[in-house]
Amino acid sequence: MGASFEDVNAEGSFPLVIVGGLSGAGKSTAIDVFEDLRFFVVDGLPASIVPKLTALFSGQNQLQFRGLVVGMYFRDRTFPQSWLEALEELKLQGLKPQIIFMEARNEVLVRRYSSTRRPHPVAQLMAMDGKEGDDCGPLSLDGAINLERERLYPIKKMADIVIDTSDYSVHDLRKMIQRKWTALEEGEGRLNIQIISFGFKYGPPAEADLIFDMRFLPNPYFVQSMRPLTGKDEAVAEYVLGVEPGKTFLVKLREFLEYLFPLYEAEGRYRVTLGIGCTGGRHRSVAVSEALYKSLKESNYVVSIEHRHVELG
């Protein structure tokens, strides 16, 4: 479990969470979630000020808060290099910041910006610097999103949690952040494994490191009594995994991952996200994901699970 308030205070350290990601992907919602969890939250500070803020926070009565949450400031000409330097400085202070990275598909971000009519921060910076797009005109919204995605890749690579918010309502997103943070908090300092079931007809999760295709398994969709069920139901799980080839496949998949995870940890990886897909994301991928989640939890891995398309399939 995560350290208690007394443990944190005694050690002179505290939980530090950095929330960043693509503009419009849900950073504000994530920060609100942590504020509700009784974290002290600060947003809009330049990266160079953050190490000074943490020094001030550590000198206060930390019993009032569970920790400190800082939102990444995007409107900075030196971004993201300034944040990479700030993260190194925080580590020199003895802090271990946990990074949460929010992202979404381009078409979703374009729709969100179009509805708010707010300028994209990268486009603003380019205009202030007098730089133009490749077509010798103002940078388009889609171009600004692609440029920001490219610039933020080093931050995403370091993140402990990556959340694609494309298909979530605000309420669903809040629940997902709480769930993933709880799993990370319980296994601080260890490899964080995220399992996402999905439907190929809706698209694979952008944050997945590994994609496994379950469409070779028997499909409960064609059994009338099972069609309204999901992979969480015992009848579906037994139909998919109780016989061959599902039975042997699950054993082989687990053996492969048991071999792979230590190699990721030795490489210094913070997390591994597994995408488990079938046609609609309702039956086979959910059944395999649930079985894998249970197996990994029983072996004391730090693991979270998300069924992205179960209600759509």
TrEMBL record:
<feature type="domain" description="RapZ C-terminal">
    <location>
        <begin position="192"/>
        <end position="311"/>
    </location>
</feature>
<dbReference type="GO" id="GO:0005525">
    <property type="term" value="F:GTP binding"/>
</dbReference>
<dbReference type="GO" id="GO:0005524">
    <property type="term" value="F:ATP binding"/>
</dbReference>
<dbReference type="InterPro" id="IPR005337">
    <property type="entry name" value="RapZ-like"/>
</dbReference>
<protein>
    <submittedName>
        <fullName>RNase adapter RapZ</fullName>
    </submittedName>
</protein>
<keyword id="KW-0547">Nucleotide-binding</keyword>
<feature type="domain" description="RapZ-like N-terminal">
    <location>
        <begin position="16"/>
        <end position="181"/>
    </location>
</feature>
<keyword id="KW-0067">ATP-binding</keyword>
<feature type="binding site">
    <location>
        <begin position="21"/>
        <end position="28"/>
    </location>
    <ligand>
        <name>ATP</name>
    </ligand>
</feature>
<dbReference type="InterPro" id="IPR053931">
    <property type="entry name" value="RapZ_C"/>
</dbReference>
<dbReference type="InterPro" id="IPR027417">
    <property type="entry name" value="P-loop_NTPase"/>
</dbReference>
<dbReference type="Pfam" id="PF03668">
    <property type="entry name" value="RapZ-like_N"/>
</dbReference>
<dbReference type="Pfam" id="PF22740">
    <property type="entry name" value="PapZ_C"/>
</dbReference>
<keyword id="KW-0342">GTP-binding</keyword>
<dbReference type="InterPro" id="IPR053930">
    <property type="entry name" value="RapZ-like_N"/>
</dbReference>
